[in-house]
Specification:
Layout (H helix, E strand, L loop, with lengths): L1 H18 L5 H20 L9 H11 L2 H19 L4 H14 L9 H23 L7 H10 L1 H28 L7
Length: about 190
Amino acid sequence: MELILVAVVLISLIVLRFEYRPVSESMLRFIALVTAAAIVGRLLFASVPNVQPATALVLLLAACVSPIIGAIAGMLVVVLTSLFLGSGPFVLFQIIAYATISLFCVLPGMKSRVLLSIYGAMAGFLYGWISNLGFLIFTGFSREAFVTLLLTGGVFDLLHGVSNTVFIWLLHPIFLRILHSFDEKTGK
């Protein structure tokens, strides 16, 4: 129960931080479009375990726009896709996982295609480890269950990390071109 309370408090803090951040209307449209693409990508690739462009797009937003905006986009991706893919207490931990991997994009050099691609591989594992905490609710929080989840989920985390790397490598130049092509003053 304490983990759920911590998750709700962290989510609330991130949402409050986003609410007090000035964001232009054109930037909000850009964020909405990238978030929508991440949602559609996650749903389209749902039949392939842990291979999805959603995490790559969230990381691109976090690295190139803002870690808080990446965390908000990750939250929206999880909540809206859970309407189609199913939900449960683990959704809170998927949100925390997206927030965590997004907040690490504050580190210097993350806008680099190479560094972000390498981080995308590591983020696949970090996301898996954090989201596995949500499944511990069903196991009575035993240490053995957590270790089992980490070991059995290793292949899926590897798939997630590799797909993050591939999608970031492919989408990074396109993302930057689109991001830098619009004028925030005119909204075009």
